[in-house]
Amino acid sequence: MVVVQMLLMGIISCYQVMSHKRSVLLTQIWAYRCQNGRMQLLYFAEVTYHLVSNSDVYYLGLATGTLTVESLSNLTLYFFAFSYSFVNMLKARSGEQQLARHFRLTWELIQLIMVSCIAFALYSFRATSLSFIIDMNGELLRKTSDGGAALCKLRDSCVVFKHNMALALTVVSLGLGFVAAGVTMIEFPVQAAYDIRTALSRPTISTIRRSRSTLQFSFAPFFFYFVQSAIYTLYGYTTSNVVVGGTSLLGAVLGSYYVLVFYKYTKDRTQATRMLTSAMLVILLLAHQVMTRELEETQMITGIPANILSVFTAASPLLQVKSILRRKDASCLPFGMSTMNVVSGTIWATYGVMLGDQLVICPNFFALSMGVIQVSLILLYPGGKTGAGSVAETKAKMSSPTTTTTKKASPKHKSEHLKD
């Protein structure tokens, strides 16, 4: 419940802050709720008490590989709640009275990545005995040893850990906080944050519709996203997985809309028509196989093409990487798709680890890597001046009326005019 309350509080306050560029009232509300609020102290106290009281249980479970999935989920969520509250309170009490929006965006991105990585690691090694925890931080005491009688009580032996888990999480949280603060001090994040907000306020498809042109965007990311989602819908049906099938069906609907908008405003429809025709034939062929065969037989038939297309979808925005590096302009990359490669790749890779399904883990881990590269290029080369605005200016110049040159009068015409 503590984590759910913190998430709701963070989402509401983040929406209020990001929807206004500069507001003193909302700044105070955000600072009160997320940093100076009394509830933040209560959340931090609850989480700290739980970690301190159950530290030895978590340590022993990790060392012996006996923690349940529920305990690992609980530990992951408590890491998020502890580090989030701890760093926010330190930031609030550092004397700054400003919103520090750039720090907040960076800090929450680091939180998302770290929590996902920790969840991935814990679920991957949940059945593995991590004996180094006892070697480095534990001590085996027997009832007959000095101090063992008091600690082991009625047991013949017991394991005592030197450092509490709350202390370890404090060190990790401080390290992450310093990383977030250091990133915000680099020169480019201020301009990059502005370009990110601009990109979020003008998504790629909306920009295409408003400009009535595909501009510098490529058809490949939208095409592969649509086909991948359609085939993953079939894969979710064959595995009877409602989560995979439902989300993929939603992606197929959105992908068809993206493809339709791009196809409507593109100048070269020949290549797009060929690609869509081939894709529809493949989808119909796979659907026929799913309907006429046993579901278990068609899992690999749909899973392998879906994985291949996931790789193409994640890597397709980087087809123009040479042009991006040469012009130092990444405005041709779809920001929304690149960001979602990071977010969805992290979430789905973690979910694949929980399921033990390699067909879900591998492509999404690749998508996460490609998304990190794409977002890094967007941050390094925002290209605000060379984006859609320059294309519109070029079109305006091309469509402006040209001045007609007057024909020079010949001497004969001049004399006739003087006679008149």
UniProtKB/TrEMBL annotation:
Enumerate the InterPro entries for this protein: SWEET, SWEET_rpt
Q: Which UniProt keywords apply?
A: Cell membrane, Golgi apparatus, Membrane, Repeat, Sugar transport, Transmembrane, Transmembrane helix, Transport
State the membrane topology. Multi-pass membrane protein
Bilayer-crossing residues are 57-84, 105-125, 165-194, 215-235, 241-263, 275-292, 298-319, 331-351, 363-381
Protein source organism: Phytophthora kernoviae
Q: Where is the composition biased (Basic residues)?
A: 409-420
Q: What is this protein called?
A: Sugar transporter SWEET1
Broad class of the protein's primary localization:
membrane
Q: Which GO terms describe its cellular component?
A: Golgi membrane; plasma membrane
- Please tell me whether the keyword Zinc-finger is annotated for this protein: no
Upper classification of the source organism reads: Eukaryota, Sar, Stramenopiles, Oomycota, Peronosporomycetes
